[in-house]
Amino acid sequence: MAVVTISREIYSEGSYIGEKVAEGLGYHFVSKNGIEKIFLEHGLVEFGKVYESIEGFWTRFDDMRSTTIEFLKQVILALANHGNVVIVGRGAFAVLGAFADVLNVRVQAPLPFRVKRAMEKRGGSVPETEG
């Protein structure tokens, strides 16, 4: 079971890097979209809404949230069991943390780079800097 997990800072290009790593190794690439597709195939249509929500005190007791998180863990374990996979995000590094044959990678980028990427993606202009 060869697995690479990639966690990343927002706008650090971690997903792009993950795609290229998977391509180079001949592995399957799984991102949020791939996991969301698996959830939809199993009738859990609220994945995006539940996963992206901020956990407050009362949401800890929400059965749908618990079910979603538990199913997410099972999906990540199944993907890892399949092997030869690069999994981006979704806490895969934590779920697979005890496995010896998993490489966990953290992608970071300087703040100015991430701000520039955010502005480009959102259609804003990036101010020029002097110097």
What does this structure look like?
The chain has 131 residues and is an alpha/beta fold. The chain has a domain at 33-121. It contains six helices and four strands; from the N terminus they run E-H-E-H-H-H-E-H-E-H. The chain has helices spanning 14-25, 32-41, 47-52, 63-82, 92-95, 111-121; strands spanning 3-8, 28-30, 85-88, 102-107. A four-stranded parallel β-sheet has the order 2-3-1-4, with helices on both faces. The chain is globular.
Summarize the structure in short.
Helices cover 48% and strands 15% of the residues.
Percent of sequence in beta strands: 5-15%
- Compute the separation of the termini in Å: 49 Å
The chain-level mean pLDDT equals 82
User: How many strand units?
Assistant: 4
Helix share, percent = 40-55%
Q: What characteristic shape results from the CA principal axes?
A: globular
Rg calculated over all Cα atoms: 17 Å
Taking the sheet with the most strands, its summary is: 4 strands, parallel
Number of helices: 6
Query: What is the H/E order?
Result: EHEHHHEHEH
What descriptive keywords fit this protein?
alpha/beta, 48% helix, globular, 4-stranded parallel β-sheet, single chain, 131 residues, 6 helices
